[in-house]
């Protein structure tokens, strides 16, 4: 850096990149607001929002996290810096590859079908042979490219001496193409190119639908790690990487910043926001000697800390490891379609082999026996079975999205249908902190709003939010005193908004008004609990907050089983104990202290306002604020499971009709194409009948 004539330092010429988490972004207007607020800053070259991940990437010579966060705060968006190295890549190369294969298979199938119609309509022998060769020229390259995912998966399974659904699929495609090429070479009357392509197309569609539901799930452990503070300021003023800190290092943390490591307060006094980390609804006072944890936010003043745990030893990292382990355990859930595949694959192979053997023994015609075996493999190949679950999942996901719920996991619907108990967090999940200020006289309300707008303290924000239509009073000499509140003068009279004997008070003209925020229930909270209990689902309230607020909310909602002051580890242990006892629990939470419990629960849900790590650990995200959507999701999940089972039944009926035709030698390529298409369409139509009951 070089000194300018006015004594200031010039900004570094090298562009820097900063990634911020902006969880409040919802729409195109938010994108424009965020990008506009950042690009208006001097020294910022570009700001690009990723709405899906609620992140913004900022580049520029003066792109520093505190400066960018302050600009977004002024624009009405809360933001936090993220560590780029800890984030998972966003490119969906697998999805794009599947879409390319679907396009190739679909284009080839349509062209081959046109030729096949002419053959089926009674084309002459010469025309038939020509069309078969043209079909081969189109089909074989297309199948080599489009069917590769199935063949590669089948080869891997066979190398490991196991069976999966891709083994009969690959065998059917390879045999259909091989036999068709042989029949074309010898001038045979039948070729199965169209059936092989339609089989590949329908199964690729099912594979893509399944991939899309899995793609939305992102590692909660990675999100937790990315939320760590990437840089810290030493007591000497030197800025270092958090990863380079050692136990005993002295670190300075300013107002509005997050604490980088577990530490003990050495100097200073400030309020700490622990709501997302511990679930405590009110700020906690930190003074010399107070133990603080990585991830907590300093609300006012500044602190000098002495590091007591760094790196892998911090509570945040321990939580990340617990979440990673929990995710792995939950990933062992075997999907309904996978369980069906274990039965289906050997059954199909057995039938095809039996058909081949039977025809050889009965007629001695090996050529005819091979055609019967191929017909059996093709006509019984699991198009309908492959679409049975994805078709329902995608339809249900769309229905739930319309109700304000976003499914993130491929097996979330199946697990939601199995729920037999519910565990609820309190702060930020069942409740929101607001101030009830209808008792304030008009002048006092105007002063209170003006004082509240001068501070970013959570209590001040709650007071300001409670007076949205009040014009703020004109104040002078505004000042914020850490731990005491905001002071000013109004018409020459001292006024203050801050701590009182029993909460938050507004002091005005010798009077003191109580403006303490009170927890209020989220919309739909009472309905969620009532409907769950009426359905026979036991409900547990599990919170890290103090005993009295937890008891009050439990009493208001009629929840008999409640736990207060629960740490993240205790929440995790309780969910594990419930699972060991055979309960299939739906966990609903929003904070870092809920991330482990969300990951280990049988199925989990987080509000859209939750911390990114909690949303990442959950299977379902509540996009709106109404918790009444949760029981609707449980009901739809049960209906969706019934639809999946019905689709399996349709596939079974289809096989019961088609298998005798194939084994008797009556199945033609035309019959195979019609049968496969009809069964797939029936499965999709059955899935479209899903509706959400209010």
What structural keywords apply?
alpha+beta; Calcium-transporting ATPase, cytoplasmic transduction domain A; 5 domains; 7-stranded mixed sheet; 23 helices; elongated; disordered N terminus
Major beta sheet summary: 7 strands, mixed
Order of strands side by side in the largest beta sheet? Answer: 14-27-26-25-15-23-24
Low-confidence stretches: 1-12, 216-221, 326-334
Number of helices: 23
Helix fraction by DSSP (H/I, runs of at least 4): 40-55%
Could you say how many structural domains there are in total? 5
Identify the quaternary structure here: single chain
What do these coordinates show?
Helix content is 50%, strand content 17%. It has 23 helices and 27 strands. It has a 7-stranded mixed β-sheet, with helices on both faces. Strand 5 (231-234) and strand 6 form a beta hairpin. Mean pLDDT is 78; it is low at 1-12, 216-221 and 326-334.
What is the topology?
Blueprint: E1 16-21, H1 28-39, E2 46-50, E3 55-60, H2 65-74, E4 80-82, H3 93-120, H4 125-146, H5 148-159, H6 166-186, H7 193-215, H8 220-226, E5 231-234, E6 239-241, E7 250-253, E8 262-267, E9 270-273, H9 275-278, E10 284-286, E11 291-292, E12 297-298, E13 303-309, H10 315-330, H11 336-363, H12 366-379, H13 383-402, E14 405-407, H14 412-416, E15 421-424, E16 431-435, H15 442-453, H16 458-465, E17 476-481, E18 485-490, E19 493-499, E20 504-508, E21 511-514, E22 517-521, H17 525-534, E23 539-542, H18 547-557, E24 561-563, H19 568-580, E25 585-588, H20 592-600, E26 603-607, H21 612-617, E27 620-622, H22 629-663, H23 669-687
Parallel strand pairs: 15-23, 15-25, 23-24, 25-26, 26-27
Antiparallel strand pairs: 1-3, 1-4, 2-3, 5-6, 5-7, 7-13, 8-11, 8-13, 9-10, 9-12, 14-27, 16-22, 17-18, 18-19, 19-20, 20-21
């Amino acid at each position: 850096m070089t000194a300018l004539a006015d004594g200031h330092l010039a900004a570094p010429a090298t562009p820097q990149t900063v990634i911020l988490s902006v969880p409040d972004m919802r729409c195109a207007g938010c994108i424009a607001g965020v990008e506009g607020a950042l690009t208006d800053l001097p020294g910022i070259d570009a700001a690009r929002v990723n709405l899906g991940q609620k992140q913004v990437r900022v580049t520029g010579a003066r792109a520093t996290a505190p400066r960018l966060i302050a600009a977004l705060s002024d624009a009405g968006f809360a933001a936090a810096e993220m560590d780029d190295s800890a984030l998972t890549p966003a490119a969906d190369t697998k999805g794009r590859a599947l879409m390319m294969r679907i396009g190739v298979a679909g284009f080839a199938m349509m062209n081959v079908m046109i030729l096949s119609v002419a053959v089926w309509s009674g084309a002459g022998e010469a025309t038939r042979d020509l069309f078969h060769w043209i079909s081969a020229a189109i089909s074989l390259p297309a199948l080599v490219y489009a069917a590769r995912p199935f063949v590669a998966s089948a080869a891997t399974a066979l190398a490991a001496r196991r069976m999966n659904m891709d083994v009969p699929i690959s065998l059917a495609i390879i045999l259909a193409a091989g036999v068709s090429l042989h029949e074309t070479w010898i001038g045979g009357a039948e070729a199965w190119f169209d059936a092989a392509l339609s089989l590949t197309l329908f199964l690729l569609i099912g594979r893509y639908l399944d991939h899309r539901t899995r793609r939305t799930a992102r590692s909660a452990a990675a999100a937790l790690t990315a939320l760590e503070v990437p840089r810290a300021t030493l007591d000497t003023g030197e800025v270092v990487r958090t990863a380079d800190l050692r136990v005993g290092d002295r670190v300075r943390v300013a107002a509005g910043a997050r604490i980088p490591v577990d530490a003990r307060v050495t100097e200073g006094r400030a309020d700490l926001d622990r709501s997302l980390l511990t679930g405590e609804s009110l700020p906690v006072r930190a003074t010399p000697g107070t133990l603080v944890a990585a991830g907590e936010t300093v609300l006012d003043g500044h602190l000098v800390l002495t590091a007591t745990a760094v790196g892998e030893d911090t509570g945040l990292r321990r939580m990340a490891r617990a979440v990673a382990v929990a995710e792995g355990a939950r990933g062992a859930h075997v999907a309904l379609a996978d369980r069906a595949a274990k039965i289906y694959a050997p059954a199909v192979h057995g039938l095809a082999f039996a058909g081949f053997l039977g025809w050889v023994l009965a007629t001695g015609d090996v050529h005819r026996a091979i055609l019967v075996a191929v017909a059996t493999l093709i006509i019984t190949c699991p198009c309908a079975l492959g679409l049975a679950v994805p078709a329902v999942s995608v339809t249900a996901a769309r229905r739930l999205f319309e109700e304000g719920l976003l499914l993130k996991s491929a097996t979330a619907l199946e697990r939601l249908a199995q729920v037999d108990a519910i565990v609820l967090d309190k702060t930020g999940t069942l409740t929101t902190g607001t101030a009830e200020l209808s008792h304030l006289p008009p002048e006092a309300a105007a002063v209170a709003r003006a004082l509240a707008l001068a501070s970013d303290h959570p209590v001040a924000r709650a007071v300001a939010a409670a007076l949205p239509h009040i014009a703020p009073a004109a104040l002078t000499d505004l000042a914020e005193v850490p731990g005491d509140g905001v002071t000013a003068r109004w018409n020459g009279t001292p006024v203050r908004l801050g701590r009182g004997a029993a909460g938050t008070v507004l002091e005005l003209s010798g009077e003191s008004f109580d403006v303490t925020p009170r927890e209020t229930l989220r919309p739909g909270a009472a309905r969620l609990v009532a409907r769950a209990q009426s359905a026979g689902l036991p409900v547990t309230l599990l919170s890290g907050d103090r005993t009295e607020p937890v008891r009050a909310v439990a009493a208001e909602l009629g929840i008999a089983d409640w736990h207060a002051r629960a740490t993240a580890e205790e929440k995790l242990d309780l969910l594990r104990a419930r699972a060991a006892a055979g309960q299939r629990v739906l966990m609903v939470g929003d904070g870092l202290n809920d991330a482990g419990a969300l990951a280990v629960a049988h199925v989990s849900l987080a509000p859209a306002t939750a911390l990114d790590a909690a949303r990442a650990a959950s299977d379902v995200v509540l996009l709106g604020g109404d918790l009444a959507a949760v029981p609707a999701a449980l009901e739809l999940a049960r209906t969706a499971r019934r639809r999946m089972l019905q689709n399996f039944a349709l596939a079974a009926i289809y096989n019961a009709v088609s298998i005798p035709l194939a084994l008797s030698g009556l199945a033609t390529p035309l019959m195979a194409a019609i049968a496969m298409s009809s069964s797939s369409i029936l499965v999709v139509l059955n899935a479209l009948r899903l509706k959400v009951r209010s």
